[in-house]
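User: Fold this; C-alpha cells only.

Assistant: Input:
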Amino acid sequence: MQSDSPSLRKRVFQIIFESDTRPAKTFDIVLITLIVLSVGVVFLDSVPRLHERYGELFYVVEWMFTLVFTLELALRLYCLDRPLRYLRSFYGILDLLAIMPTWLSLLLPGAQSLLVLRVLRVLRVFRVLRLMEFVGEGQMLVQALKRSQRKILLFLLTVLLIITVFGALIYLIEPPEAGFTSMPRSMYWAIVTLTTVGYGDIAPVTPLGQFISAFMMILGYSIIAVPTGVFSAEVIRSIHQERYSDEACPGCGHEGHERDAKYCRLCGTWLDEETPDPKAPPEEKAPDDAPEGDARPS
C-alpha cells in the first residue's frame, strides 16, 4: 500500500460517518432500508396469525438483522479514536438500543419486543440527504422552546392549580355514585374536561356540577392556546433575529433590514459601511493649479 493512500480505518470512517461520497450515501441508504425492514418484521411477528405460520422465519430474519447491526456498530467503534465517547452520544445509544433487545432475549424472553426502538435510527436520513436546513430549523425550535420554558412552566403550574381547585370542588358537589369517589378521580375528570377531551367515563349529574363542567370546557378552549401563542412568538422572534439585522441605516436610522440587504428599503442608503457603494458617482477631483502663462495658441 502506498504511503499517500488512506488507511483502512480512514476509509471505513469516510463510508460510515460521512455522506459526501457515493459509497457513503449507498451505505446510509442501505442501513436505513434494513432498519425499516427490521421494524416491519417486528410488526408482522406481533400478528398472532402470522406468528403461527412464519414465526420461525421471522426469528431467523431478526437475528440476521441483529448480526448486521452488530457488525455495523463494531465497524463504527473500530474507526474511531474514542469509541466510548461515541457510545455515550445520542446516535451511539440508539445503536445499542438497536441490538441489545435481541441479545437480551437469550436471557430474558420477550425482550425482542423492544426492537421497535430501532426505528429511531432512521434519524440518520438527515445525514444521507444532507438536510442541513431542517437541522437548523430544528435547532431554532429548540432555542425558542428554551426561551419560553419559564412562561410555559408558569402556565402549567396555573393549569395544575385550576385542576386541583375544580377537582376538589366537583368532589364536594357530586355524589360518589356518579364516579367521583376520590380526589385523584375528580382531578382526572378535571383534566379530561379542561383539555376538552371528554371521555365520558365519568360525568357530573347535579345541575351545579354540570354548570362547572360547562365553565371548564369554555375555560379549556381559552387557555389551551396560551402555550401555543407563547411558543409561536418565540419562533417568530428567532426567525426575525436570523433573517433581519439590528443595525440602523446611516441615512434614515431605520432598523430591521434583511441581513443580505445592501441598500435601505426606505431611503436607499448604502448599508455596508466597510465597502464603497458601487453605484455611487465617483468623487470629483480638485483641478490642478493652472500653469503660469497662457499655453493656449493664439
